[in-house]
Each structure stands twice: as C-alpha cells, then as structure tokens.
Amino acid sequence: MDAKGNRAGGRGGRSGGVPGEVWLREPRARRDALTLDRIVATAVDLLDADGVAGLTMRRLADRLAVAPPTLYWHVKTKDDVLDLAVDAIFAEVPVPSGPWRDAVRELVLAWRATMLRHPWSPPLLGRPALGPNVLERTEFLQGALASAGFTGAHLAAATHGLANFVIGSALTQSTWHSPEALGTARAHLRARADDYPTLVANDHLADQDWDALFERGLDHFLTGLAQGIGSGPVSSPP
Q1: Is-contact 64 2, C-beta < 8 A?
Q2: Which end of the chain is more exposed for a tag (fewer CB within 10 A), N or C?
Q3: Cα–Cα distance measured from residue 172 to residue 122, given in angstroms and rounded to the nearest whole number
C-alpha cells in the first residue's frame, strides 16, 4: 500500500537512515531486557501524543528508561522507528472474508479508521512499506481484486487507486481537524467568490460528515470496478 508522501525521519535521531531499510536488515540478537515490541509500542504512544516532530530518539530512550546506546542496539535511526510504528498499527486492521467487493470495502474502511486513530501515519505511507502487517493486508487486497478477475495493469491500477483514495482521505481529514482552520479557509473562498463560483456555490469546504463522504466515494469506486468487470476483460492486452 503506498501513496506519495513526505519523508518525516532524520530529525531528532541519527541521520543517514533510509526509509524501509529496517526491513532489509537481519535482526540483531538481544543483549538486554529491552524488546523491539516494547520500543515500537512506546514509539506509537509518543507519536499519538506528539506527532512525528515530537518523536526523538532521546525522548524515546527516556520514556523506555534506557540509555540511548541501548536503544541504538535495536534500531539504528528514527527512520527505523517510524517504519516499525507504521507497520505496527496495521495490525489493528482486521483481515476480512467474504465476496470480493464486501471484503475490499471492509478492509479499506478499517484501514482508514486505523489511520484516523493515529493521525501521524497517513503522511508516512509514501515510505517503502515492507513490514509483515502491511504486506499481509496488501496481499489480501490484491488477492481479492484478482479473484474478481483483475490482472496486469488493471489489477495494479485498482490496487493503487484504492490505496491512494484511502490515504488521501485520511490525510485530508487529519489535516482539517481544526474548526478554526476550516472557518478561515471558508472565509477565504467566500471573499473570492467571483474567482471560484462553483466552489463557493457548493460550499466546497463545508464541515462534512467525513465518514459518510468517504463511504459514498468508496462505493462509487467499487461500483466502477464492478461495472468494469461486467463490461469485458479486465486483463491487460498482450
């Protein structure tokens, strides 16, 4: 699952980390009582409280009551911690069952709900996502679409389209969580109604029922996919 996002690592920890690299290294043998699971759970708590900017390796070590060198034995950089934290929260997304459309809908809705519980996560999903929890759910998503008949470029487009839609929705909602910011933006548009008549007429920045809006868009997306299956081959031409 991926979408374009900004790199959010590096500051507050050792520099030189490469997003996703943590999944390509062999785990180091333990030499102390500290566990990687405890590090990641503590990091998620810090991220939930203070966001990416509030997570530093020193703060994480302090919260774990260990010296920084002990922490660095398990994770090399802040990028490692962010990649591990993103994968950890995906464990909260249940893997559903049932007909492909119902299963995909259930998965995507749970994915979005998880990101909204952890609003720091949507911008990080442009990073290489190679952790087991992310890959298991990506495998399920693509497998469900493949079972419906999608192959090749059509399968890739459907998978990435759904991923980008859910990440974009969560990113937008987590960004516009402040009523003050939303009110300022609406006033800005209304003051320029001659330039943006359609946006103003349709109250583009109205305080929306975000859940209902997303579910309606998701149903449109899935209906389009289902109609594509019924109208002819959904495999790539030779």
Answers
A1: no
A2: C
A3: 9
Q: Which domains does the chain have, with CATH numbers?
A: 21-89 (1.10.10.60), 96-231 (1.10.357.10)
Residue pair 78/17 in contact by the 8 Å Cβ criterion: yes
C-alpha–C-alpha distance, residues 193 and 201, integer Å: 8
| pTM of the predicted structure, to 2 decimals | 0.79
- The predicted-structure confidence for 69-102, as pLDDT tens digits, reads as follows 999 989 999 999 999 999 999 999 999 999 999 9
SS3 118: coil
Taking alpha carbons only, the member of 186, 175, 173, 182 closest to residue 217 is 173
- Give per-residue pLDDT as tens, 14-51: 545 667 776 666 666 555 678 999 999 999 999 999 99
For residues 210 and 151, the answer to whether their CB atoms sit within 8 Å is no
